[in-house]
Amino acid sequence: MENKKSQIGFYIFIAIYLIIIIFPFYWEIVTSIKTPDEIFSSFRFWPKQITADSYVRVFTQRPFGIFLKNSFVIAALTTLVAIVFGSIAAYAIARLKFKGKSIVLGLVLAVSMFPQIATLSPIYMFMRKAGLRDTYAGLIIPYTAFALPLAIWNLTTFFKEIPFELEEAAKIDGASPFQAFSKVILPLTAPGTFTTAILVFIGAWNEYLFALTINTKDIRKTVPVAISMFEGQYTIPWGEVAAATVVVTVPLIIMVLIFQKRIVSGLTSGAVKG
């Protein structure tokens, strides 16, 4: 009887937790399909009249397609650069023997501890003097700088789990260190690499502070900045803000749902020693 009560209590707790987590996104969806009058005049959990006008206005009255393209290109390139350089650095830290390895890892972790606001001013000055403001590179460079510690730290854990005997066998067969890395070690860490890539992509996709400061032209704005600057003639167009939020969030949710097995296997494989 006590076990049954504890199970019921556990399920009630899970249900309440899920409602708290899901409700904000549900409310965004509901707001995005309401008419402007209903958004400001009533508090309903489901609209009287469903309309897609907010979604239409997002793409017809604003260059939202350009914002989506900017965010995707910047996030994708940031992920690519971070994974390529992070994999090489993590391989060196995990597989090679050299003094000060723990210090290097500590420094890598320390870089990720810096708050963005503390580095905003010098990075902005550098980008301005280098002529990289309002360019993709102007955001990819600082994004990569903050994404690399995460990539290196995560991938180092995965590389450490690969038996050294596999690498030694490849070298005996005539493989160079780079061939052993690319053809033996890297494929075995695919789940961890994929998980890290997803985390880096989401972080770059959602970043706001650098995007707000460095890229100020409409043609180079990213989605988070563009949504924050939605303006109406007399008030904030909450319907359009909600519609744009749904548009940029749904692809991430779908991506995580599709690849959730890989993500979970990547997280668990790095946490359990074989």
Can you tell me about this structure?
The chain has 274 residues and is mainly alpha-helical. The chain folds into 2 domains: 1-62 and 230-250, no CATH class; 63-223, Orthogonal Bundle (MetI-like fold). 77% of the residues lie in helices and 0% in strands. It has 14 helices and no strands. The protein has helices at residues 2-32, 36-41, 53-60, 64-95, 101-113, 116-129, 136-160, 164-172, 177-188, 190-206, 209-214, 223-228, 238-258, 260-271. α3 (53-60) crosses α13 (238-258) and α4 (64-95) packs across α10. The longest helix has 32 residues, at 64-95. The protein is globular and about 75 Å long.
Structural class: mainly alpha
The biggest beta sheet is recorded as: none
In what range is the share of β-strand residues? under 5%
Number of helices, where a helix is a run of at least 4 consecutive DSSP H or I residues:
14
Whole-number total of structural domains:
2
Q: What is the general shape?
A: globular
H and E string:
HHHHHHHHHHHHHH
Q: What is the first-to-last residue Cα distance?
A: 39 Å
**What is the CATH T-level topology of the largest domain?**
MetI-like fold
Quickly name the level 1 CATH class of the largest domain. Mainly Alpha
Helical amount among residues, as a percent range? over 70%
- Give the oligomer, counting copies of the same chain as homo and different chains as hetero: single chain
CATH superfamily of the largest domain, called what? Answer: MetI-like
The beta-strand count equals 0
- Radius of gyration, whole Å: 23 Å
Rounded mean pLDDT score: 83
The CATH architecture of the largest domain can be named as: Orthogonal Bundle
Low-confidence stretches: 270-274
